Amino acid sequence: MRSLVVTGGAGFIGCNFVRHALARPGVERLLILDKLTYAGSLLNLEGPLADPRVRFERLDIADRAAVRSALAAFAPEAVVNFAAETHVDRSIDAPEAFLATNVYGVFALLEALRAGAASGAPPCRFVQVSTDEVYGSLPDEGAFREDTPYAPNSPYSASKASADHLVRAYHRTYGLDAVVTNCSNNYGPHQFPEKLLPLTILNALEGRTLPVYGDGGQVRDWLHVEDHCAGIWLALERGRPGEHYNIGGGGERRNLELVRALCAGLERLRPAHANPALAGKGVPSYEALITFVQDRPGHDRRYAIDSSKIRRELGWVPSRTLEQGLAETLEWYVGHLDWCARVQEGRYARERLGTGARPGGGGA
């Protein structure tokens, strides 16, 4: 793949994928398209934007004319779509933005590719980066497979499911070369602090409460973002047109277990007794900050991914265990508190979202 368009490239997974792509041999041109919403920031791209192969354009993927013009001018060999509203809590409070970007935005991308094909543009592969949440909630046993029926339970997951169905339809009806990847919960560098891991780390360091939804027994399969990007690249390069590939880290943990593991990791890096934010309040440990709060409406109980297909067909394997990945992630956030402050400034105060108590308008 010599020329790529990465939509949503200023967001968490997108910026990590940009770095992964630039490290691959043969990539000559890369165009990043991003609307720069609250969760997308050029702070995530300070290194890549210095690379002469990279161009950035601020663009809303739901703007059909702008998308069509950008793709026609760049003539990419592939488009990888990370652009999405992703936080379930925000989708509960204000679902309309999720429909605009996650459904209509994907439609605009697909239509631009269809128009390009009709006008004789070079072949272009489309990769839709999706989520395991489209499958709904699992019982205590079993895992999501690519043939698991879709059963989304939040406005966020319903919008992603709708987009996946559109991609399938454009492949079957118009012959679009498209692949869908469905991942488990990502973690790692550059994740916006509304999500469980960075929110827990930053709140703990500041001596703030660590909110755990319900009883904390919700199970998630955790996947390091760099391992996810490696899987997406394989799907981009070698995935069969029209196929789905599930990408999971094999790191199932209950939310409460994960929060406690983060607290234990912080005790090793920055012991609570030596942290003025806790010592000044007489708080003996990070774990003492854990506070159980009202559960999220419609909260899925368990996710787990069967990633045997991508392992078997494309040779993907995660490069790190959850324990290794958590240690790396803790060190990154502790070492990048300046980034954390700058990316949140004027955008987010780590307030509780997604109670369903108000129309319009952290957790896992």
**Helix segment tally:** 12
Write out the strand line-up for the largest beta sheet, numbering strands in chain order: 3-2-1-4-5-6-10
Order of helices and strands: EHEEHEHHEHEEHEEHEEHHEHHH
Strand content: 15-25%
Number of DSSP E strands: 12
Q: Given this structure, which CATH class of the domain at 3-190 and 223-249 and 299-319 is correct?
A: Alpha Beta
Mean pLDDT: 95
Helix content: 25-40%
Taking the alpha carbons of the first and last residues, their distance comes to: 34 Å
- The CATH superfamily name of the domain at 3-190 and 223-249 and 299-319 is NAD(P)-binding Rossmann-like Domain
> Largest sheet, described in full?
7 strands, parallel
Q: Residue ranges: pLDDT <50 for 5 or more in a row?
A: 358-363
Rounded radius of gyration (Å): 20 Å
Please identify, by name, the CATH architecture of the domain at 3-190 and 223-249 and 299-319. Answer: 3-Layer(aba) Sandwich
By helix and strand content, what is the structural category?
alpha/beta
Per the CATH scheme, the topology name of the domain at 3-190 and 223-249 and 299-319 is Rossmann fold
Spatial shape: globular
